[in-house]
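In the design runs reported in the main text, the only information available to the sequence generator was the tokenized backbone. The following block is the verbatim input for one such run; it is reproduced so that readers can re-run the procedure and compare outputs position by position.
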């Protein structure tokens, strides 16, 4: 290789070898998540009514990206709330498929193993819960963010406990209660994060899903933020 080409290659490699601190990496990931969310929001609003599969694909992309990009934050991700809302708007069967796709696709990046099965199962149960409580989430012609937030908070604990069952493949049953107790702080972080995502996402996502699926049982147009 010509010396000038070698120097150019080294300089290019050095230019991209930037080491970020954990805080800088977090801000970078949050910025990327916003970059992903904004065009998806525009695309979702421009979809024709009844295009449910395209809407679900956009939501899956957002949920997967959010989980991957927020991985530096322990147990904080938007998937649980999104799955809950998908269940409320599109029903149990679609929410189960949605939850499974998000669990598998995000774990292809974060790490795949026996826990993926339990994560898919746990998020599927969240989606089924959302479908079962779709009428309760209604507050007149609006979605009740408080009710969604309350269910999402409980779902944070329930999800983690279902996924924790995967630990029984490597620890004895008598150690399982201790394992659950040690994980309680992380469960609380998940539940608290769900409250934030419920407050942020419930109104906008419900509005766009209701527009795409007029037969939605969770809310009826127009959708407004309600307590």
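Verbatim output:
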């Amino acid at each position: 290789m010509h010396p000038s080409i070698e120097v150019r290659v080294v300089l290019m490699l050095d230019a991209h070898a930037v080491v970020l601190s954990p805080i800088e990496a977090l801000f970078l990931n949050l910025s990327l998540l916003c970059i992903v969310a904004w065009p998806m929001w525009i695309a979702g609003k421009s979809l024709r009514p009844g295009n449910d599969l395209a809407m679900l694909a956009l939501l899956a992309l957002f949920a997967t990206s959010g989980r991957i990009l927020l991985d530096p934050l322990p147990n904080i991700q938007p998937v649980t709330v999104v799955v809950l809302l998908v269940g409320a708007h599109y029903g149990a069967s679609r929410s189960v498929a949605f939850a499974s796709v998000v669990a598998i696709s995000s774990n292809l990046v974060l790490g795949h193993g026996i826990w993926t099965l339990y994560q898919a199962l746990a998020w599927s149960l969240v989606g089924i819960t959302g479908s079962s409580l779709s009428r309760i989430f209604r507050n007149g012609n609006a979605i009740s963010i408080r009710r969604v937030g309350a269910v999402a908070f409980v779902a944070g604990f329930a999800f983690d406990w279902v996924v924790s069952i995967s630990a029984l493949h490597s620890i004895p049953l008598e150690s399982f209660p201790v394992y659950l107790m040690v994980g309680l702080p992380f469960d609380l972080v998940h539940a608290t994060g769900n409250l934030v995502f419920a407050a942020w996402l419930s109104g906008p996502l419900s509005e766009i899903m209701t527009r795409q699926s007029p037969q939605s049982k969770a809310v009826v147009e127009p959708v407004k933020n309600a307590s």
